[in-house]
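Support request, please re-run this one:
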Amino acid sequence: MSATTTRTVRRRTLRLAAAALTAAAGLTLTACSGSDTAGAKPAGHTDTGVAAAESGGAGSSAGAQGPDGQAGPGAEVDAKVDAKADAAGKQPGSAQAATSGGSSSGVQRCHTSGLKASFATGGDATPAPDADGGTTTSIVLTNKGSSTCKIGGFPGVDLKSGNGGQSWSLRRSSAKHSSITLGPGDSTDFTINLAMARKDEAHPWMPAFAAVTPPNETTALTLKWPWGPLVDQTGATHPATFVNPIG
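Re-run finished. Output below.
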């Protein structure tokens, strides 16, 4: 066979191979297209499984948008609820409640069992029997516990005789008062105005003890009376011996 004939045969072979490849590709495309067409569902057919999943997943969106693209009733309700929630969060009462809860910090009032009481003595703390306009004595209250506590108001003070036969519950002054926070080891005090008996006093009375009850407590701390006798005004309407508030 000549060279020309050989080249012609090769060209025909290549053309036939190309034609075969083209036909195979066409069959492959037709098969794929046919599979897709077979899998597609006719118009009006609903796949309930898929529809249910889409409905469940898009429930919030369905409520937020109506069929015409506008916000539906669900969106209005959600917006109102969100607006109310925002407004409630911005009301002064909520912030005030949070603030008061933080300021209280769980600090409890001072109890009798956590306090120590003592008369202030020495120097200016000693009452002067001859002082014009009366004199005072101070009782110191110390937080002996390991926790911070609050105390404020009027303590109860009962002066008692040695034999327990006479007791004098002192009246309170009209002074204003507030609360004081005491850390462990901190102290505060209150004063008692005294009408000390002079040497020529006709009705002196000598206390033996002072029972001090902290505010809002029922148990007293008993102290020995360190000073001299008082003018006996146990039955007076406005006695010169009375208690002032803490602090």
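Helices lie at 3-39, 48-57, 59-64, 73-90, 92-104. DSSP finds five helices and 14 strands in the chain.
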